[in-house]
User: Fold these one by one.
Assistant:
Number 1:
Amino acid sequence: MLIGTLATVTCAAIVGLSARSFGRSIVFAFGVNWVLSAWATILGLHVAPLRLPAPYYSTRPFEKGGRVYDRLGVRWYRQALRRVLWSVNPALLRSQPAAQETMIEGTKDAETGHLLIFVLITGMTVWAFVSGWWGSAGWLLLFNLLHNGYPVLSMRQLRARISRVRPKSSRALQPDAGRSG
């Protein structure tokens, strides 16, 4: 709890000082995403992971086909960053149900962190817009979509794809397994 409090206070101070010093710049818009990502990572490592209610993570019928995410460019985004940030071994996911469940649980933690940061930066974007800082609002919006919005969509699409290839025996354990879509 102490580490979480110290991390939150430190992060808030860094963001506040950065906003005063660089608030109207691309440096602030880019940097605030990374400061908040570091904060979420520290909280995830030292405090119990923040989770939304279980129904939030359920795969929706429109997500199962993946077409909506493809139209939004999520597959392109994931392919562009795959070599830099992460990789998934599809053969391992197909052959080992335990690996699939571990991956699904991992996407939930990452998605929650990115969603929390997305909401915080959206608030900052509104503040910059209301303050008349048009350039900052635009940069905040752009970097928020790239650093947080697309990762949230990517995690949701990945869960939907894993659910499609999961063996029937492990699907029976899932709350949304009986839904048709």
Note: The first helix runs from residue 2 to 22.
Number 2:
Amino acid sequence: MRTGAARARKSVERRCDFIPWNARQGIIFGLVMEFLQTRRVFVGVLALGLFTMAARSVTDPDVWWHLRTGQLIVQTHAVFHTDPYSFTRFGQPWIDHEWLSQVLIFALYRLAGWGGLIAGFGAVVAGAFLLVFLRCPGRPYVAGVITLLGAFASAPSWGVRPQMLTLLLASVLLLILERSYQRPKLLWWTPALMLLWVNLHAGYALGIGLMALFLVGDALDVAFGFEGGPPSSARFRTLALVIVVCAAVVALNPYGASMYAYPLETLRSRAMQSYIGEWFSPDFHQSRYLPTLVMILATVALAALSPRRLRPREILLLSVTTYAGLRSVRHIPIYALIAIPILSAMVLAWLQERAVARRFEWKQTPLTRAKTLLNAVLLAGFLVFLVARVRYVTHRQAETEAKELPAGAVSFIAAQRPPAPILNHYNWGGYFIWRLYPEYHVYIDGRADLYGDAFMNDLATTYYLRGDSWRIPFATWRIRTVVLPPDAPLVTALRALPDWETIYADNQAVILSKKEQQGF
């Protein structure tokens, strides 16, 4: 019996039979010519360029324990509530706030290997910034240039990591919030978005924070009598109600109400802000942070020079996210999501004042055969370059792993089985979990929230030989093997002691083993 889909397809085929073949060729040719308009090709090149920028080697030190955790969740059909990986926190409560992201990461890896992860997260990042592009006035050229500037500013934080899913969901949320001024019912999509978000990453708190800032900003717009369509009272009430619903939805995760406090506890951790690079403030002496500085300075300058006045809501959003970006590199991508459309609007207004903006307007003009061919070659060239880039990065993943991580040392441990417990470097714990668990448990890994500030401080004291207390962890945990970078102060100290010997060394790591069970 013929299915409904088959009947519908047959019906379409019969209708198409009435269209002469030459006419059908003309329709297809027209669609191709429409797609190859210069402005549309520009958008296509922008999308491919963003994808190419985001397709990079897997180097984040946490991806390895994400892979292992995703694997174990898939195998056991259960999430973790206590720590299974370390001997220093084994069995203690653990909120795995990224559990669904880890399942996704492992699924991509199992289905398509490193190439799947590289391409998948490249698409996530590119999608986030294409949504920002859609929020910008001055499309395509002005918006495209400013979007690229924001992409360069946030690029140091990109990678195969759950935070990129938060970036995408934040971009979706901002699009909903801005479009809801014309279509308030769009706000009712946010609870579903929040349900997904809270199970992917604790960055869900950013979503509630953005909605709250929009609510306060709308109130400020009304209070200051800002012209240009203040929000209706009905939309204001809907947004307030939606925030309450989204806050209630947060509890719908494997860890229940504990997820309410988790983001705040992370933000309050002084140890994370002191020892983890992405929590540091951006160092503008480094070239990779110059696009962020350019964006901030350009926004300040155009706020004074552009004829477009900033709304109170925009000032509030910019102020909060600029502060967050200056406080922590980790927050620069969120600043970019807010700043790109505002900066684009101010640049467009400045150009319009000088009667230059009409050059950037979207006008469909007939294309010559030469320009059409050039546009097709340009688009195809970028597509080929993207495919080649993904293949190249994927092919070099093993080499990158050996360069960035102690691959040789871990292979030595797996083969020679030095005695446990092992004291490992903070950034290497996740890699040990992927390569050596369950045969070996780690001293520490990237789950800084699990270990706590006091433990992180004690590790820093030991690593840098601060005072006499650096010896305490060796006695407390009866450490038998140490795996650290060659330039670690602790390595120098242990090499000088008679009861420790070097059993492995390369450019990445040194392994030292205790000769016999005795005190210092």
Note: Residues 12-19 have pLDDT under 50 and may be disordered.
Number 3:
Amino acid sequence: MTFPKLISTIVFIFCCSTSFAQKSIYNPQELFAQNVFTKNGNEFRSANGTPTTKYWQNRADYELKVTIDTSLNKLSGNEIIHYTNNSPDSLSSLWMQIDQNTYRTDARSNFYTTPQPTEFTDGMDVEKVYIQYKGKVIKADYIITDTRLQIRLPYKLSTKDKIDIGIQYHYTIPGAFGGRTDYAETKNGKIYEVAQWYPQMCVYDDLEGWSTLPFLGSGEFYCEYGDFDYTVTVPADMIVAGSGELQNGAEVLTAQQLKLLAAAKKSDSTIIIRSVADVDSMALKPAPTGMKSWHFKMFNTRDVAFGASRAYVWDAAKVNLPNGKTSLAMSVYPVESVGPQKWNRATEYLKKSIEYFSSKWFVYPWPVAVNQAGIAGGMEYPGIVFDGMNDEGGVLYWVTAHEIGHNWFPMLVGSDERRYGWMDEGFNTFIDIYASDNFNKGEYAPKRDAEYAPGLGNPATEIVPLLKDSAAPAMMSRADAIPEKYRHPVVYFKPAFGLVLLREVILGPDRFDYAFQKYVEHWAYKHPSPDDFFREMNNESGEDLSWFWKEWFYNNWQLDMSVDGVSYKDNDPVNGADITISNLQKMAMPATIEIVWKDGSKERFQLPVETWLQSATHTIHVTATQKVQSVTIDPDAMLPDSNRKNNALSF
């Protein structure tokens, strides 16, 4: 061997062997261990992830009548709940949520984060509770514990039996500190955003029995489905925009408003129902005396909310749904929000979002959707969203699409947000990505939050630090147990990016979309658990994805794949090239390998996840006629690789 050749060989070996010095902590037996699921299938939830013919859930139908005293910001209500026990169990007590108690000075929610709140209300004052069962009306024996109310029944409520619960109550509506439910001043009057405004039945299911976690804030809602019949009484000069469909328009609207509303139901363009001029004209007149009652109904829903104000500009347009169906999108907002790139386009944003989600995942099921401007800044309820009155442009589009997207997750697919926030926020953040790409030929695309930036060349600028953070909680953590520092990365962005990886890298769009659509279809108006989602995606996609659920959802593991070297038998490319790669961290993923040959031509091939089924290092033999110029693993940077410096070797 001549001296120049010796130097060349040494350099080659050094370049190709640098990654071997890195010790791998990858354990295929741990990642691919079987029996990842916490429970087997049973008579209620099949092993394939779908509800069985014996699946059950209880039902709560509501009659609600409330009045708002705008001088005191006080809501007073009377409620009747028609509760049906469809469970196989006899119930000795009933549990409800009374979320307004989260604003009390002694609420548990005041103590689990810092800084602690400084503004409070007295919570919900429950004046009277009674039950009616088999024709008998009796005073209820009940206790209130933080944000829960328990009724202790004098006899057990048998399976398939029904009971009526009556409650009289009142509370002070919080100001801006309310967050999700509040009131705010505008130049033409207060805007009320009213949510979590009535005692609501807790869910009783086959997973936990009674779901009685207190309302702390981050963990949101878990609700039974039923029909709602509700009436809101407010001063006569106010407009009420609520979940569901207005039943008495002829009593509360002018003839002109009724005419314009009817036109909007047939119009693809936004029609103004109550204009800026109408609001200004009203402001010049003496306030009318008396009250008006707005009557709404909404069917097969888990909740309702509403907004109320004398300051509303109001517009609406038709929503075109699959198979010739239609709905109505409408927005209400103060004159301060008017502008060509502001709330003038809010109904357009709402309409297009509903149309896209309906065509892609599941048809929007309710006759109306409302976008209400206020200070809640982005909050969702069935059929209505509360968005920021100062939002405009892309921000207003994104928040509108995101909040109305929640009508699919979790309003339709009724997961337990209080335990598994990622099944709500993560799924919805995922579907946002494609909605933004679709809207108006990508006017506000791409929507790629920094925490999960697929398609921008470095998909994980924030996910990688999260995966490296030993203090970061896993996604399966209880929603309220995730510190605010990690809430958006863990609850919103990591699950969304995980679904992008499933769709774009692991399964492909066709298989992913089919499986995801089936999950939505099978669990619409029902209560899926994480296991149900994991199992259904496995079964409908035809892949055992247990390894992915384990590494991405149950753990916060890292990914680090490296190209270790290239060699030729007898140093002759005609014998083919052997490419050695390693997996250095605990996560594994399928990946793309790109070879650039000496003449500049390129070749790609796909590595399945089974590449890592037995070991952390793998040598791939490829046919060659010339030497390799470079080898790169994950050349499009689709994967959250924690060390991209070892992803390529050049010669």
Note: Residues 1-21, 450-459 have pLDDT under 50 and may be disordered.
Number 4:
Amino acid sequence: MHTMLAWHTFSCILERMDKGGLYFLLENQWIDENLMSLLNELYSWMKCRENSRLEFKEAKNTFDITKLIRYCCSFANEGGGRIILGITDQFPRKIVGTQAFQNLEQIKSRLISRLSLRIEVEELFEENRRVIIFSIPSRPIGVPIAFEGTYWMRRGEELVPMTPDMLKRIFEEGVPDFSALVCPDAKFEDLDLVAIHAFQEAWIRKSGNSQLKHIPEKQILRDIEVVTDQGVTYAALILFGTRKALGKYLAQAEVIFEYRSSDITGPAQQRIEYRQGFFTYFNELWEKINLRNDNQHFQDGLFVFDIPTFSEKTIREAILNAVSHRDYKAAGSLWIKQYPRRIALTSPGGFPPGITPQNMLWRQQPRNRRIAEVFGKCGLVDRAGQGADRIFEESIKQAKSLPDFTHTDEYQVVLTLDGQVQDESFLRFLAKLDKKDLDSFTTIDFLVLDYVHKEKPLPSDPPELKTRLKHLVDLGVIESIGRGKSIQYILCQMFYRQAGKSGVYTRKLGLDRDTNKELLLKHIRANKTEGARLSDLLQVLPSLSENQVQTLLRELKTAGSVHVRGKTRAGLWFPGKEILEVI
């Protein structure tokens, strides 16, 4: 699709050039890299389905301001999102342009004054067709946004008032850390000395301070702030409580473990209920899981290596996450269901405020901070109490599927860990990488490897993903093909050689910009009499977007290799004069 920014946008860019930044030449205009990036993102969004974070409206001539404010209100209440005017809402989406809201500063000011939120408004032009993008931030924690006396939310295609339970959930976000609250009537005698000693030993190992073993139990708990002058906290009960005390004060603080050999409904082969201080059963729980933890064998030349179906590090981190992040005000128990090749953990309460499956690696918001801090003290988790990065890293290192949160909703978090190794050639590839490089990899590096390996486009958030992509290219772990907007990334040649796919590597490497243009030219030559339609040329290069194919055709046209008859998408492409003379 022909890309052209409006002249006033171009003028703004010229004014900014003296201030630094990256620009590149397109159609004889210098284009701001940020605007170009936004345009590329726009095409990505156009391929997505509408949801509580994304809405498209044609709004060719106008759009009701009241309706816009309601949409912004609902988006803010559900975590933020974007409303895009000037694009059809039905697939395949098209840019039709909009004349609505000519004074963007004025509409931005009205939105801020009505909602007390800073809403960003951006304007783009594609073939002189104007698109407006409203980017709405999430509401503040614990504060729903109202307009006209109503807290709006999305329900399908409709905007409706928020339900009472959703409002209750938002208001409760501002409540202090539940685990740090004192449990009325609970006494030190309600705590299990075995659990306290287990924590004490772990703390000594982590700190290397052998003097800790001489500190009395009650003082130990005061030092980690689970017992205060006001009394025994819920964190103390959850981590160190006796079975009797938990049954009396917090019966839902239990973990139920089941082993099932299949998905068939019926009694589990094994079921254990742990309603006692966490430090009394944490190791035992892993031992129960490990009883049915078989190894998957893989051979690399003369060497055979084993990958456990369930990684101890991954499972322990998942359990610690569930215990420190679940909602203890909810009545349900924490369930751990083991199957031969997967484990599912179900925790009461949805994700903590502001946390989603998409951002959980970048944002840290422990629901029960006091519990997370205790885990950090004894070295079970990082102080932040997150640990999700380790779960993702281990899954990628062992060539398994990424953690799955598909069945999570606002009432429960469901984490499914698939233990089946998906690609043994990827395992061999990681094993052959330089150990220094591998040890230096961050979680983001492993995620980039996973995206490239699975041939999935990198998301725009966080921006560090693209930064680390360049780093991995510099290391030679990943290779780039082509340039500009058509650039693609693949794993290095070693991966394809070990996988027995050297031919695939050659094919992928060969499809660079010049090769793509040659393929288009070959099809145009083959149809020199009747001409080649754009729709047919798109089939020649199915991996490229329409915009990318059009760019290649323009380059061929500029070089005199082809010419077009007709100015719309129905135009026909023919070989240029030079080609015709040869033919």
Note: The first helix runs from residue 7 to 16.
